[in-house]
Write the C-alpha coordinates for this entry.
Amino acid sequence: MLIKRPADIAPSDITPRALFDSRRDFIRTAGLGLGAALIGAGLPRTAQAAGYGGQPLGPLVKSPYSTGEKLNDYSDITGYCNFYEFGTDKSDPSRNAHRLKTRPWTVSIEGLVNKPKTLAIDDVLKLAPLEERIYRLRCVEAWSMVIPWVGFPLSALLKQVEPLGSAKYVEFTTLADPQTMPGVRSGVLDWPYVEGLRLDEAMHPLTLIAVGLYGEVLPNQNGAPMRLVVPWKYGFKSAKSIVKIRFTDKEPVSSWTRAASREYGFYSNVNPDVDHPRWSQARERRLGEFTKRKTLMFNGYGDQVASLYTGMDLKKNF
Amino acid sequence: MRITMGPKMRLPRFNPDRRQFTLIWRALWVAGLLPLLMLVSAGLRDALGANPIEYITRATGDWTLRLLLLTLAVTPLRQLTGWHWLVRLRRMLGLYAFFYACLHLTTYVWLDQFFDWPGMLKDIAKRPFVTLGFAAFVLMLPLAATSTNAMIRRLGGRTWQGLHRAVYAVAVLGVAHYWWLVKKDLTEPILYASVLGTLFALRLWHALRLQRTLQAQAA
Protein backbone atom coordinates (compact mmCIF):
# COMPACT_ATOMS: atom_id res chain seq x y z
CA MET A 1 0.00 0.00 0.00
CA LEU A 2 1.24 3.43 -0.86
CA ILE A 3 1.05 5.79 2.08
CA LYS A 4 1.40 9.34 0.93
CA ARG A 5 3.50 11.63 3.04
CA PRO A 6 1.74 14.81 4.04
CA ALA A 7 2.76 17.86 2.04
CA ASP A 8 5.41 19.96 3.72
CA ILE A 9 3.07 22.88 3.50
CA ALA A 10 0.64 23.84 6.22
CA PRO A 11 -3.07 24.11 5.40
CA SER A 12 -2.82 27.69 6.61
CA ASP A 13 -0.48 28.46 3.72
CA ILE A 14 -2.81 27.11 1.07
CA THR A 15 -6.05 28.54 2.33
CA PRO A 16 -6.43 32.26 1.72
CA ARG A 17 -5.46 34.05 4.91
CA ALA A 18 -8.82 35.68 5.51
CA LEU A 19 -10.60 32.39 5.06
CA PHE A 20 -8.17 30.51 7.29
CA ASP A 21 -8.49 33.14 9.98
CA SER A 22 -12.25 32.89 9.81
CA ARG A 23 -12.26 29.09 10.05
CA ARG A 24 -13.67 29.25 13.52
CA ASP A 25 -16.56 31.39 12.35
CA PHE A 26 -17.15 28.79 9.70
CA ILE A 27 -17.27 26.01 12.22
CA ARG A 28 -19.39 28.09 14.53
CA THR A 29 -22.06 28.54 11.91
CA ALA A 30 -21.64 25.06 10.49
CA GLY A 31 -24.33 22.62 11.38
CA LEU A 32 -24.48 20.99 14.76
CA GLY A 33 -24.52 22.90 17.97
CA LEU A 34 -21.54 20.80 18.94
CA GLY A 35 -19.29 23.05 16.91
CA ALA A 36 -20.96 26.11 18.30
CA ALA A 37 -20.70 24.69 21.76
CA LEU A 38 -17.03 24.27 21.42
CA ILE A 39 -16.26 27.63 19.95
CA GLY A 40 -17.97 29.32 22.85
CA ALA A 41 -15.13 28.10 24.97
CA GLY A 42 -12.51 28.93 22.36
CA LEU A 43 -13.23 32.62 22.12
CA PRO A 44 -10.56 35.05 23.28
CA ARG A 45 -10.61 35.62 26.99
CA THR A 46 -9.69 38.63 28.99
CA ALA A 47 -6.54 37.91 30.90
CA GLN A 48 -6.11 40.80 33.24
CA ALA A 49 -4.74 39.90 36.64
CA ALA A 50 -6.93 41.65 39.14
CA GLY A 51 -9.18 40.83 42.02
CA TYR A 52 -9.93 37.16 41.97
CA GLY A 53 -10.72 37.10 45.65
CA GLY A 54 -7.37 35.92 46.95
CA GLN A 55 -5.05 37.98 49.09
CA PRO A 56 -2.84 40.19 46.89
CA LEU A 57 0.89 39.52 47.22
CA GLY A 58 2.05 43.12 46.90
CA PRO A 59 4.56 44.54 44.43
CA LEU A 60 6.15 41.84 42.31
CA VAL A 61 9.45 41.84 40.48
CA LYS A 62 9.06 41.20 36.73
CA SER A 63 11.21 38.36 35.46
CA PRO A 64 13.13 38.04 32.20
CA TYR A 65 12.16 34.35 32.26
CA SER A 66 8.50 35.20 31.71
CA THR A 67 6.89 34.34 28.40
CA GLY A 68 4.82 36.92 26.56
CA GLU A 69 2.23 34.36 25.49
CA LYS A 70 -1.45 34.83 26.20
CA LEU A 71 -2.31 33.79 29.73
CA ASN A 72 -4.89 31.17 30.50
CA ASP A 73 -7.93 32.27 32.42
CA TYR A 74 -7.80 32.30 36.19
CA SER A 75 -10.88 30.08 36.16
CA ASP A 76 -9.19 27.49 33.93
CA ILE A 77 -6.00 27.46 35.99
CA THR A 78 -7.91 27.06 39.24
CA GLY A 79 -10.71 24.84 37.93
CA TYR A 80 -8.82 22.29 35.84
CA CYS A 81 -6.25 20.70 38.11
CA ASN A 82 -4.51 17.41 38.65
CA PHE A 83 -4.15 17.16 42.41
CA TYR A 84 -5.04 13.56 43.18
CA GLU A 85 -5.05 14.13 46.94
CA PHE A 86 -8.36 15.90 46.34
CA GLY A 87 -9.72 13.47 43.74
CA THR A 88 -8.81 12.31 40.25
CA ASP A 89 -11.32 14.38 38.29
CA LYS A 90 -9.98 17.71 37.04
CA SER A 91 -12.75 19.52 38.86
CA ASP A 92 -12.33 17.65 42.17
CA PRO A 93 -9.52 19.83 43.57
CA SER A 94 -11.46 23.07 43.14
CA ARG A 95 -14.43 21.42 44.84
CA ASN A 96 -12.56 19.80 47.72
CA ALA A 97 -9.43 21.83 48.41
CA HIS A 98 -11.14 24.44 50.58
CA ARG A 99 -10.66 22.00 53.45
CA LEU A 100 -6.89 22.24 53.23
CA LYS A 101 -5.43 24.26 56.14
CA THR A 102 -2.44 26.29 55.01
CA ARG A 103 -1.78 27.91 58.40
CA PRO A 104 0.08 26.92 60.45
CA TRP A 105 2.38 25.32 57.89
CA THR A 106 5.99 24.32 58.17
CA VAL A 107 8.45 22.85 55.75
CA SER A 108 11.41 20.89 57.05
CA ILE A 109 14.61 20.85 55.02
CA GLU A 110 16.89 18.00 55.97
CA GLY A 111 19.16 15.20 54.83
CA LEU A 112 22.69 15.83 53.57
CA VAL A 113 22.93 19.43 54.77
CA ASN A 114 24.97 21.41 57.27
CA LYS A 115 22.05 23.23 58.84
CA PRO A 116 18.76 21.34 58.73
CA LYS A 117 15.85 23.68 59.33
CA THR A 118 12.14 23.74 59.82
CA LEU A 119 10.67 26.93 58.45
CA ALA A 120 7.24 28.41 58.98
CA ILE A 121 5.51 29.35 55.76
CA ASP A 122 5.39 33.05 56.68
CA ASP A 123 9.17 33.02 57.01
CA VAL A 124 9.51 31.22 53.67
CA LEU A 125 7.52 34.03 52.08
CA LYS A 126 10.13 36.54 53.30
CA LEU A 127 13.19 34.63 52.06
CA ALA A 128 13.44 36.37 48.73
CA PRO A 129 11.70 39.11 46.76
CA LEU A 130 8.57 37.72 45.12
CA GLU A 131 8.66 37.63 41.34
CA GLU A 132 6.00 37.15 38.73
CA ARG A 133 7.04 34.29 36.45
CA ILE A 134 4.82 33.59 33.47
CA TYR A 135 5.57 29.99 32.50
CA ARG A 136 4.20 27.46 30.11
CA LEU A 137 2.94 24.35 31.89
CA ARG A 138 2.88 21.14 29.87
CA CYS A 139 0.95 18.26 31.39
CA VAL A 140 1.98 14.68 30.60
CA GLU A 141 -1.61 14.25 29.38
CA ALA A 142 -0.81 16.44 26.34
CA TRP A 143 -2.49 19.67 27.34
CA SER A 144 -0.84 22.91 28.35
CA MET A 145 -1.50 26.30 29.90
CA VAL A 146 0.29 29.61 30.39
CA ILE A 147 0.30 30.54 34.07
CA PRO A 148 1.45 33.72 35.83
CA TRP A 149 3.05 32.23 38.92
CA VAL A 150 4.30 34.25 41.86
CA GLY A 151 7.34 32.92 43.67
CA PHE A 152 11.09 32.88 43.99
CA PRO A 153 13.87 30.56 42.84
CA LEU A 154 14.03 27.30 44.79
CA SER A 155 17.78 27.85 45.11
CA ALA A 156 17.13 30.71 47.54
CA LEU A 157 15.38 28.27 49.86
CA LEU A 158 17.91 25.47 49.43
CA LYS A 159 20.89 27.71 50.20
CA GLN A 160 19.45 28.31 53.67
CA VAL A 161 20.51 24.86 54.82
CA GLU A 162 23.96 24.66 53.24
CA PRO A 163 23.86 21.38 51.27
CA LEU A 164 26.83 19.04 51.72
CA GLY A 165 29.09 18.12 48.83
CA SER A 166 27.71 14.58 48.96
CA ALA A 167 24.17 15.75 48.20
CA LYS A 168 23.24 14.84 44.62
CA TYR A 169 19.45 14.88 44.62
CA VAL A 170 16.59 16.70 46.28
CA GLU A 171 13.42 14.89 47.30
CA PHE A 172 10.13 16.68 47.86
CA THR A 173 7.41 15.23 50.05
CA THR A 174 3.96 16.73 50.04
CA LEU A 175 1.12 16.78 52.54
CA ALA A 176 -0.98 13.62 52.89
CA ASP A 177 -3.75 14.35 55.35
CA PRO A 178 -6.64 11.90 55.14
CA GLN A 179 -8.76 14.27 57.26
CA THR A 180 -8.82 17.03 54.68
CA MET A 181 -7.80 15.20 51.51
CA PRO A 182 -10.40 12.70 50.30
CA GLY A 183 -8.07 11.31 47.61
CA VAL A 184 -5.55 10.22 50.25
CA ARG A 185 -8.16 7.85 51.63
CA SER A 186 -8.16 6.08 48.25
CA GLY A 187 -5.31 3.92 47.03
CA VAL A 188 -4.89 5.56 43.67
CA LEU A 189 -1.25 6.49 44.42
CA ASP A 190 1.19 5.70 47.23
CA TRP A 191 0.84 8.56 49.68
CA PRO A 192 2.47 10.86 50.49
CA TYR A 193 3.24 12.14 47.00
CA VAL A 194 6.97 12.25 46.46
CA GLU A 195 8.93 13.95 43.70
CA GLY A 196 12.61 14.49 43.07
CA LEU A 197 15.12 16.53 41.12
CA ARG A 198 18.82 16.30 40.51
CA LEU A 199 20.64 18.94 42.57
CA ASP A 200 21.62 20.98 39.49
CA GLU A 201 18.01 20.92 38.28
CA ALA A 202 16.84 22.05 41.69
CA MET A 203 19.37 24.89 41.79
CA HIS A 204 18.53 26.03 38.24
CA PRO A 205 17.25 29.63 38.14
CA LEU A 206 14.08 28.56 36.29
CA THR A 207 13.08 26.22 39.12
CA LEU A 208 10.56 28.04 41.21
CA ILE A 209 8.89 27.84 44.58
CA ALA A 210 5.46 29.23 43.76
CA VAL A 211 3.34 30.82 46.46
CA GLY A 212 0.84 32.61 44.28
CA LEU A 213 -0.70 33.08 40.86
CA TYR A 214 -2.26 36.04 39.09
CA GLY A 215 -0.70 38.29 41.74
CA GLU A 216 -2.60 36.65 44.57
CA VAL A 217 -1.96 33.99 47.20
CA LEU A 218 -1.91 30.52 45.65
CA PRO A 219 -5.37 28.93 45.69
CA ASN A 220 -5.47 25.66 47.66
CA GLN A 221 -6.25 23.53 44.61
CA ASN A 222 -3.07 24.74 42.92
CA GLY A 223 -0.82 23.50 45.72
CA ALA A 224 -0.97 26.09 48.51
CA PRO A 225 0.80 27.32 50.43
CA MET A 226 4.00 26.46 48.51
CA ARG A 227 4.68 24.28 45.52
CA LEU A 228 7.38 23.49 43.06
CA VAL A 229 7.28 24.69 39.45
CA VAL A 230 9.75 23.13 37.01
CA PRO A 231 8.60 24.49 33.66
CA TRP A 232 10.66 22.24 31.36
CA LYS A 233 9.30 19.04 32.92
CA TYR A 234 5.85 17.49 32.77
CA GLY A 235 3.49 19.04 35.27
CA PHE A 236 3.45 16.16 37.74
CA LYS A 237 7.10 16.85 38.63
CA SER A 238 5.98 20.16 40.15
CA ALA A 239 4.94 18.85 43.57
CA LYS A 240 2.21 20.72 45.43
CA SER A 241 1.73 21.61 49.10
CA ILE A 242 5.27 20.68 50.08
CA VAL A 243 6.04 19.77 53.71
CA LYS A 244 9.50 18.23 53.46
CA ILE A 245 12.60 18.74 51.35
CA ARG A 246 15.41 16.21 51.75
CA PHE A 247 18.89 16.17 50.23
CA THR A 248 20.12 12.69 49.30
CA ASP A 249 22.87 10.94 47.38
CA LYS A 250 20.43 8.46 45.78
CA GLU A 251 17.93 9.17 43.02
CA PRO A 252 14.54 9.60 44.70
CA VAL A 253 11.70 7.38 43.50
CA SER A 254 8.78 9.62 42.64
CA SER A 255 5.19 8.54 43.20
CA TRP A 256 4.38 8.28 39.50
CA THR A 257 7.49 6.22 38.82
CA ARG A 258 6.51 3.92 41.68
CA ALA A 259 3.02 3.62 40.19
CA ALA A 260 4.15 2.93 36.60
CA SER A 261 7.90 3.00 36.02
CA ARG A 262 7.52 2.16 32.32
CA GLU A 263 5.43 5.28 31.80
CA TYR A 264 6.89 7.89 34.12
CA GLY A 265 10.63 8.22 34.49
CA PHE A 266 12.69 10.22 36.96
CA TYR A 267 13.54 13.00 34.52
CA SER A 268 10.19 13.44 32.77
CA ASN A 269 11.51 16.31 30.69
CA VAL A 270 9.01 17.56 28.14
CA ASN A 271 10.13 15.84 24.95
CA PRO A 272 8.08 15.65 21.74
CA ASP A 273 10.28 12.80 20.46
CA VAL A 274 9.73 10.45 23.38
CA ASP A 275 6.14 9.27 23.50
CA HIS A 276 4.30 8.11 26.55
CA PRO A 277 3.86 4.36 25.98
CA ARG A 278 0.14 4.89 25.47
CA TRP A 279 -0.05 8.25 23.72
CA SER A 280 1.98 10.64 21.62
CA GLN A 281 3.76 13.62 23.16
CA ALA A 282 4.44 15.29 19.80
CA ARG A 283 1.59 17.74 20.10
CA GLU A 284 -0.44 19.34 22.83
CA ARG A 285 -3.67 21.22 23.25
CA ARG A 286 -3.13 24.65 24.73
CA LEU A 287 -6.30 25.10 26.73
CA GLY A 288 -8.46 27.71 25.05
CA GLU A 289 -7.12 26.87 21.60
CA PHE A 290 -8.87 24.74 19.02
CA THR A 291 -6.16 22.97 17.06
CA LYS A 292 -3.23 21.28 18.72
CA ARG A 293 0.19 22.86 18.64
CA LYS A 294 3.57 21.19 18.37
CA THR A 295 5.19 20.40 21.68
CA LEU A 296 8.58 22.04 22.10
CA MET A 297 11.68 20.26 23.38
CA PHE A 298 12.05 21.04 27.10
CA ASN A 299 8.71 22.86 26.74
CA GLY A 300 10.55 25.66 24.94
CA TYR A 301 13.12 26.16 27.72
CA GLY A 302 15.92 24.35 25.86
CA ASP A 303 18.17 27.43 25.68
CA GLN A 304 18.25 27.53 29.46
CA VAL A 305 18.29 23.84 30.39
CA ALA A 306 19.53 21.68 27.49
CA SER A 307 23.08 21.90 28.85
CA LEU A 308 22.00 20.06 31.99
CA TYR A 309 21.56 16.92 29.90
CA THR A 310 24.54 17.04 27.55
CA GLY A 311 25.62 13.54 26.57
CA MET A 312 22.57 11.88 28.10
CA ASP A 313 20.32 9.56 26.12
CA LEU A 314 16.98 11.20 26.79
CA LYS A 315 15.11 8.21 25.34
CA LYS A 316 16.57 6.04 28.07
CA ASN A 317 16.46 8.72 30.74
CA PHE A 318 12.89 9.68 30.03
CA MET B 1 -39.04 -24.59 19.74
CA ARG B 2 -40.18 -22.20 22.42
CA ILE B 3 -39.36 -22.74 26.01
CA THR B 4 -40.93 -20.50 28.57
CA MET B 5 -39.23 -20.60 31.86
CA GLY B 6 -38.06 -18.13 34.42
CA PRO B 7 -36.86 -17.79 37.96
CA LYS B 8 -39.28 -17.92 40.86
CA MET B 9 -38.93 -14.23 41.74
CA ARG B 10 -40.73 -12.66 38.85
CA LEU B 11 -42.00 -9.12 38.54
CA PRO B 12 -45.71 -8.72 37.99
CA ARG B 13 -46.52 -9.47 34.40
CA PHE B 14 -46.58 -6.29 32.42
CA ASN B 15 -47.53 -6.43 28.84
CA PRO B 16 -48.06 -3.03 27.29
CA ASP B 17 -50.80 -2.79 24.69
CA ARG B 18 -50.02 -1.17 21.37
CA ARG B 19 -50.72 2.34 22.63
CA GLN B 20 -48.66 1.93 25.78
CA PHE B 21 -45.78 0.45 23.83
CA THR B 22 -45.78 3.40 21.42
CA LEU B 23 -45.58 5.73 24.40
CA ILE B 24 -42.68 3.81 25.91
CA TRP B 25 -40.92 3.71 22.55
CA ARG B 26 -41.28 7.46 22.06
CA ALA B 27 -40.13 8.21 25.60
CA LEU B 28 -37.03 6.12 25.03
CA TRP B 29 -36.42 7.84 21.70
CA VAL B 30 -36.45 11.23 23.43
CA ALA B 31 -34.38 9.95 26.34
CA GLY B 32 -31.72 8.75 23.92
CA LEU B 33 -31.30 12.28 22.61
CA LEU B 34 -30.99 13.82 26.08
CA PRO B 35 -27.22 13.27 26.49
CA LEU B 36 -26.63 15.08 23.20
CA LEU B 37 -29.00 17.89 24.16
CA MET B 38 -27.27 18.25 27.53
CA LEU B 39 -23.92 18.48 25.78
CA VAL B 40 -25.15 21.13 23.34
CA SER B 41 -26.76 23.07 26.17
CA ALA B 42 -23.56 22.94 28.25
CA GLY B 43 -21.68 24.15 25.19
CA LEU B 44 -23.99 27.10 24.65
CA ARG B 45 -23.68 28.03 28.31
CA ASP B 46 -19.88 27.75 28.10
CA ALA B 47 -20.09 25.04 30.75
CA LEU B 48 -17.82 22.45 29.14
CA GLY B 49 -14.93 23.41 31.40
CA ALA B 50 -11.38 24.35 30.57
CA ASN B 51 -10.92 21.55 28.05
CA PRO B 52 -14.19 21.35 26.07
CA ILE B 53 -12.87 18.86 23.52
CA GLU B 54 -11.85 16.42 26.23
CA TYR B 55 -15.26 16.90 27.87
CA ILE B 56 -17.13 16.15 24.64
CA THR B 57 -14.91 13.16 23.90
CA ARG B 58 -15.52 11.72 27.36
CA ALA B 59 -19.26 12.38 27.35
CA THR B 60 -19.86 10.78 23.95
CA GLY B 61 -17.61 7.84 24.86
CA ASP B 62 -19.36 7.34 28.19
CA TRP B 63 -22.78 7.31 26.54
CA THR B 64 -21.65 4.87 23.87
CA LEU B 65 -20.59 2.45 26.61
CA ARG B 66 -23.71 3.00 28.70
CA LEU B 67 -26.01 2.41 25.73
CA LEU B 68 -24.05 -0.67 24.69
CA LEU B 69 -24.48 -2.09 28.17
CA LEU B 70 -28.18 -1.22 28.13
CA THR B 71 -28.52 -3.00 24.80
CA LEU B 72 -26.84 -6.05 26.27
CA ALA B 73 -29.04 -5.83 29.37
CA VAL B 74 -32.23 -6.42 27.40
CA THR B 75 -31.95 -10.20 27.16
CA PRO B 76 -31.01 -10.84 30.83
CA LEU B 77 -33.79 -8.44 31.84
CA ARG B 78 -36.28 -10.35 29.73
CA GLN B 79 -35.13 -13.59 31.26
CA LEU B 80 -35.44 -12.21 34.78
CA THR B 81 -38.72 -10.36 34.40
CA GLY B 82 -40.48 -12.19 31.63
CA TRP B 83 -41.05 -8.83 29.94
CA HIS B 84 -40.42 -10.10 26.45
CA TRP B 85 -41.65 -6.92 24.79
CA LEU B 86 -38.38 -5.28 25.91
CA VAL B 87 -36.69 -6.89 22.95
CA ARG B 88 -38.62 -4.55 20.68
CA LEU B 89 -36.71 -1.64 22.19
CA ARG B 90 -33.32 -3.24 21.68
CA ARG B 91 -32.74 -2.05 18.14
CA MET B 92 -33.19 1.57 19.17
CA LEU B 93 -30.77 1.15 22.08
CA GLY B 94 -28.21 -0.43 19.80
CA LEU B 95 -28.58 2.28 17.19
CA TYR B 96 -28.25 4.97 19.85
CA ALA B 97 -25.02 3.31 21.00
CA PHE B 98 -23.86 3.50 17.40
CA PHE B 99 -25.02 7.12 17.14
CA TYR B 100 -22.91 8.15 20.15
CA ALA B 101 -19.99 6.08 18.85
CA CYS B 102 -20.23 8.11 15.63
CA LEU B 103 -20.24 11.36 17.59
CA HIS B 104 -17.29 10.10 19.65
CA LEU B 105 -15.30 9.23 16.52
CA THR B 106 -16.27 12.52 14.86
CA THR B 107 -15.05 14.38 17.94
CA TYR B 108 -11.72 12.58 17.67
CA VAL B 109 -11.34 13.07 13.92
CA TRP B 110 -12.58 16.63 13.73
CA LEU B 111 -12.13 18.39 17.06
CA ASP B 112 -9.25 16.45 18.58
CA GLN B 113 -7.08 15.64 15.58
CA PHE B 114 -8.45 18.23 13.14
CA PHE B 115 -8.36 15.83 10.16
CA ASP B 116 -4.69 14.99 10.59
CA TRP B 117 -5.05 11.68 8.69
CA PRO B 118 -1.41 10.53 8.83
CA GLY B 119 -1.37 11.33 12.54
CA MET B 120 -4.55 9.35 13.10
CA LEU B 121 -3.30 6.35 11.10
CA LYS B 122 -0.22 6.34 13.29
CA ASP B 123 -2.42 6.65 16.37
CA ILE B 124 -4.56 3.69 15.35
CA ALA B 125 -1.55 1.52 14.61
CA LYS B 126 0.52 2.55 17.61
CA ARG B 127 -1.81 3.32 20.51
CA PRO B 128 -3.47 0.23 21.90
CA PHE B 129 -6.43 2.16 23.27
CA VAL B 130 -7.09 3.90 19.96
CA THR B 131 -6.69 0.58 18.13
CA LEU B 132 -9.28 -1.08 20.36
CA GLY B 133 -11.72 1.79 20.10
CA PHE B 134 -11.40 1.92 16.36
CA ALA B 135 -11.85 -1.86 16.08
CA ALA B 136 -15.00 -1.61 18.18
CA PHE B 137 -16.35 1.08 15.89
CA VAL B 138 -15.57 -0.88 12.71
CA LEU B 139 -17.33 -3.92 14.20
CA MET B 140 -20.41 -1.80 14.86
CA LEU B 141 -20.72 -0.78 11.21
CA PRO B 142 -22.13 -4.06 9.82
CA LEU B 143 -24.45 -4.31 12.83
CA ALA B 144 -25.89 -0.86 12.24
CA ALA B 145 -26.12 -1.52 8.50
CA THR B 146 -28.08 -4.74 9.03
CA SER B 147 -30.43 -3.35 11.64
CA THR B 148 -33.47 -2.94 9.38
CA ASN B 149 -36.28 -5.49 9.10
CA ALA B 150 -35.50 -5.87 5.40
CA MET B 151 -31.91 -6.81 6.17
CA ILE B 152 -32.96 -9.28 8.85
CA ARG B 153 -35.21 -10.95 6.29
CA ARG B 154 -32.53 -10.89 3.62
CA LEU B 155 -29.90 -12.44 5.85
CA GLY B 156 -32.26 -14.87 7.51
CA GLY B 157 -32.75 -14.89 11.26
CA ARG B 158 -30.01 -17.34 12.07
CA THR B 159 -27.29 -15.62 10.05
CA TRP B 160 -28.44 -12.25 11.31
CA GLN B 161 -28.28 -13.41 14.89
CA GLY B 162 -24.86 -14.91 14.37
CA LEU B 163 -23.59 -11.65 12.94
CA HIS B 164 -25.09 -9.62 15.75
CA ARG B 165 -23.28 -11.70 18.37
CA ALA B 166 -20.40 -9.37 17.43
CA VAL B 167 -21.97 -6.90 19.84
CA TYR B 168 -20.30 -8.85 22.68
CA ALA B 169 -16.93 -8.21 21.11
CA VAL B 170 -17.84 -4.55 20.62
CA ALA B 171 -18.65 -4.19 24.31
CA VAL B 172 -15.48 -5.95 25.46
CA LEU B 173 -13.37 -3.83 23.10
CA GLY B 174 -15.15 -0.70 24.22
CA VAL B 175 -14.51 -1.33 27.91
CA ALA B 176 -10.89 -2.30 27.20
CA HIS B 177 -10.52 0.91 25.17
CA TYR B 178 -11.52 2.93 28.22
CA TRP B 179 -9.46 0.81 30.63
CA TRP B 180 -6.28 1.29 28.62
CA LEU B 181 -6.64 5.02 28.24
CA VAL B 182 -7.06 5.94 31.91
CA LYS B 183 -3.92 7.29 33.54
CA LYS B 184 -4.36 5.78 36.98
CA ASP B 185 -7.82 5.93 38.48
CA LEU B 186 -9.55 2.80 37.15
CA THR B 187 -12.76 3.27 39.15
CA GLU B 188 -14.98 3.96 36.16
CA PRO B 189 -13.53 1.39 33.75
CA ILE B 190 -13.87 -1.19 36.55
CA LEU B 191 -17.50 -0.19 36.99
CA TYR B 192 -18.25 -0.68 33.29
CA ALA B 193 -16.34 -3.97 33.26
CA SER B 194 -18.28 -5.27 36.27
CA VAL B 195 -21.62 -4.43 34.71
CA LEU B 196 -20.54 -6.16 31.52
CA GLY B 197 -19.29 -9.15 33.53
CA THR B 198 -22.57 -9.35 35.43
CA LEU B 199 -24.55 -9.30 32.18
CA PHE B 200 -22.40 -12.11 30.80
CA ALA B 201 -22.77 -14.09 34.02
CA LEU B 202 -26.56 -13.74 33.91
CA ARG B 203 -26.63 -15.06 30.36
CA LEU B 204 -24.39 -17.95 31.26
CA TRP B 205 -26.48 -18.78 34.31
CA HIS B 206 -29.62 -18.72 32.24
CA ALA B 207 -28.10 -20.91 29.53
CA LEU B 208 -26.99 -23.48 32.11
CA ARG B 209 -30.44 -23.58 33.69
CA LEU B 210 -31.97 -23.99 30.28
CA GLN B 211 -29.67 -26.87 29.52
CA ARG B 212 -30.53 -28.57 32.79
CA THR B 213 -34.24 -28.18 32.16
CA LEU B 214 -33.88 -29.62 28.69
CA GLN B 215 -31.90 -32.57 30.01
CA ALA B 216 -34.52 -33.13 32.69
CA GLN B 217 -37.24 -33.04 30.05
CA ALA B 218 -35.32 -35.43 27.82
CA ALA B 219 -34.76 -37.89 30.64
About this structure: Chain B touches chain A at residues 39-40, 42-44, 46, 48-54, 56, 103, 107, 111-114, 117-119, 121-123, 126-129, 180-181, 183-185, 187 (CB under 8 Å). The first helix of chain B runs from residue 18 to 44. Chain B has one domain: 18-218. Residues 18-218 of chain B form one domain.
